[in-house]
């Protein structure tokens, strides 16, 4: 059964101060199976974030509808876990308290919230940092915390918008492995927006390529690399062939998008 159905979802932003409206997203249809890991690639401004924000209920669609487990999405909710590129932790809370934060809404007693948070801190490699505050953490550790916070709530779907975009290459690579490891163990349904072709192939079970603005889906390519995927898979023949194909797809769109 489909976990998520995005049905002819489009977005037009009204023009500000008499300007023309902006079409950010052409009517787009995408069906996501339970436990799928969809990487969404596309040139800057093609509407990737807009699509993700509509699924997250942070933005309303101008047309079409989003169904999650058969129910229409009508706003934000704890059944969707969001992680953004910029660090969004509460600076006055520790790592453990940040991870536990969303669990309040579930009405769990504090001891249980903190236990779940400690467990998730361990799963993202932050066991020794539960009492640290965000300003004491590197960017990578802050994003580990944000991912743990999103997952601690046990959402139906995880929505990641360039979560590793601000990290250096080495950290980014470690974060990809961590996220993929969690997915391989826990089997979550994930929508993951990225600019990075290699990242999309490494983590994704499908790569969806969007066209230049206003975006629509121009290719939907299964990644048939086996799991578990060690980072060395990035130099395998299959990986390199898929990367070459995607470079061509994206290049055409970046050229079409213009400077
Ligand atoms: N609130 C808004 N009001 C008006 N226009 C907007 C708004 N949000 C986004 N847009 C426009 O919609 C288009 C799509 O934006 P969006 O951020 O979804 O693209 P993106 O593919 O995620 O880009 P990037 O990869 O650069 O983050 C862009 O032209 C953007 O300027």
TrEMBL record:
InterPro entries: AAA+_ATPase, ABC_transporter-like_ATP-bd, ABC_transporter_ATP-bind, P-loop_NTPase. Gene3D superfamilies: P-loop containing nucleotide triphosphate hydrolases. Pfam families: ABC_tran. Keywords: ATP-binding, Nucleotide-binding, Transport. SUPFAM superfamilies: P-loop containing nucleoside triphosphate hydrolases. The keyword Nucleotide-binding applies. GO terms for molecular function: ATP binding. Residues 4-237 form the ABC transporter domain. Belongs to the ABC transporter superfamily. This is ABC transporter ATP-binding protein. The lineage of its organism: Bacteria, Pseudomonadati, Pseudomonadota, Alphaproteobacteria, Hyphomicrobiales.
